[in-house]
């Protein structure tokens, strides 16, 4: 069977596009990439591919898919692997449901507060959203990682849960060290959410998560944005 022709339209600074990179790395699928500059209006050619102008977009054998979760789920389904069992495998449907619940809990309950802290215009505002982030992790996410070993559901390899959260987790474990959010968030997590903290450390060190994560460049850009916000 011939390998599919895959082209990923992406931007390495976008955590949503980062999801697709993690999936492709874990599946070891060769692909071509085209970097989309998100700082300028999208070219008409790209808007024909994705009228929303967002990344990622995936062209697989001429079929276009958009939205990071859709793309990641598609890749996991189209190329069966360790990421997620097929739904008709023993326990497969249940594990898929648990992964979906975990990702929803992290993204909808916790993750937004981290980015609100990152985009805050005052230290007090950042502290408030950092507290909300930690509180949400403790309440919503920590109980779901009791059997992480080190990855979701006793897995020693990345799963679809990490594909869909890893790009955000690596930022949450990196940015505090550079003063982009209150540094004590990591201490707070290690104390109040030890399951999440151990899992997050493993995720943020994994080669597939780090493959396109240019820490130095991202930190410089975020500091420039922070300076502009706080000077406004």
List keywords for this structure.
10 helices; four-stranded mixed beta sheet; alpha+beta; 232 residues; globular
Compact overview of the structure:
The chain has helices at residues 15-27, 44-49, 68-78, 92-118, 123-141, 160-174, 184-192, 194-204, 207-210, 215-231; strands at residues 6-10, 32-35, 57-60, 63-66. The protein has 232 residues and is α+β, with helices and mostly antiparallel strands.
Largest sheet descriptor: 4 strands, mixed
Global shape: globular
Q: What structural class do you assign from the helix and strand content?
A: alpha+beta
List SSEs in N-to-C order: EHEHEEHHHHHHHH
Note poorly predicted spans.
none
* Portion in beta strands: 5-15%
Count of individual beta strands = 4
The residue-averaged pLDDT reads: 97
Helix proportion range: 55-70%
Neighbour order of strands in the largest sheet:
2-1-3-4
> So how many helices?
10
Distance between the termini: 57 Å
- As a whole number of angstroms, the C-alpha radius of gyration is 18 Å
Task: Kindly describe this structure.
It contains ten helices and four strands; from the N terminus they run βαβαββαααααααα. It has helices at 15-27, 44-49, 68-78, 92-118, 123-141, 160-174, 184-192, 194-204, 207-210, 215-231; strands spanning 6-10, 32-35, 57-60, 63-66. It is globular, with a radius of gyration of 18 Å. It starts with 5 loop residues before the first strand and ends with a helix. The model has no long low-confidence stretch (mean pLDDT 97).
């Amino acid at each position: 069977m011939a390998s599919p022709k895959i082209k990923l339209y992406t931007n390495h600074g976008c955590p949503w596009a980062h999801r697709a990179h993690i999936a492709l790395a874990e599946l070891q699928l060769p692909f071509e990439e085209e970097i989309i500059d998100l700082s300028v209006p999208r070219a008409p050619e790209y808007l024909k591919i994705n009228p929303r102008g967002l990344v990622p977009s995936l062209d697989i054998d001429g079929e276009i898919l958009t939205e990071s979760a859709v793309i990641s789920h598609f890749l996991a389904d189209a190329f069966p692997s360790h990421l997620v069992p097929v739904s008709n495998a023993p326990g497969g449907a249940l594990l898929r449901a648990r992964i979906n619940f975990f990702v929803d809990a992290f993204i909808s309950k916790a993750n937004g507060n981290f980015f609100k802290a990152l985009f805050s215009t005052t230290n007090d505002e950042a502290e408030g959203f950092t507290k909300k982030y930690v509180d949400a992790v403790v309440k919503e996410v920590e109980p779901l990682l009791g059997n992480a070993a080190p990855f979701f559901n006793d897995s020693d390899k990345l799963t679809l849960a990490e594909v869909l959260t890893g790009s955000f987790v690596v930022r949450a474990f990196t940015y505090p060290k550079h003063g982009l959010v209150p540094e004590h968030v990591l201490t707070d997590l290690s104390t109040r959410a030890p399951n999440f903290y151990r899992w997050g450390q493993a995720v943020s060190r994994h080669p597939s998560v780090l493959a396109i994560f240019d820490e130095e460049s991202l930190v410089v850009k975020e500091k420039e944005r922070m300076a502009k916000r706080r000077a406004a």
